[in-house]
Every structure is written in C-alpha cells, then in structure tokens.
Amino acid sequence: MEWYFVLLIAIGTLLLGGVLGFFISRSWFKKYLEKNPPIDERSIREMFRQMGRTPSEKQVRQVLASMKQNQK
C-alpha cells in the first residue's frame, strides 16, 4: 500500500470520528439540559435575595417568562 493511501485513511477516520463525536455530545448535552434546566424559580428567588430584594411572585414569573422567551 502506498503511503498516501494510509494518510487518506487516517485523515478520513479522524474527520469521521470528529463529526460523530460532535453529534453524539450535542445530543447528550441537549438531553442533560432538558432534565436539568439551568435556572428555575428557586434560583431566581435566591438571586433576588443576594441582591438585597424580596421578589414578588409576579416578578419571579416575569423573569421566568422572559428567560423562556429568549431561549427559543
């Protein structure tokens, strides 16, 4: 076998592995984020408290709605 055939096979294998790895990791990460959303009501309330404010239920709902709207 010529050396350039070996080189082409190696490059093709690396490209295929990179593409497959990308799609598999993207799929896994999407599933992870669906099961464990980054921010929920409790964390929003805690952020308000850290800023020295006591949030009303309306404010918490507004922040959640705003975040969901920006997510899409």
Automatic annotation (TrEMBL):
<feature type="transmembrane region" description="Helical">
    <location>
        <begin position="6"/>
        <end position="25"/>
    </location>
</feature>
<keyword id="KW-0472">Membrane</keyword>
<dbReference type="Pfam" id="PF03672">
    <property type="entry name" value="UPF0154"/>
</dbReference>
<keyword id="KW-1133">Transmembrane helix</keyword>
<protein>
    <recommendedName>
        <fullName>YneF family protein</fullName>
    </recommendedName>
</protein>
<comment type="similarity">
    <text>Belongs to the UPF0154 family.</text>
</comment>
<dbReference type="InterPro" id="IPR005359">
    <property type="entry name" value="UPF0154"/>
</dbReference>
<dbReference type="GO" id="GO:0016020">
    <property type="term" value="C:membrane"/>
</dbReference>
<keyword id="KW-0812">Transmembrane</keyword>
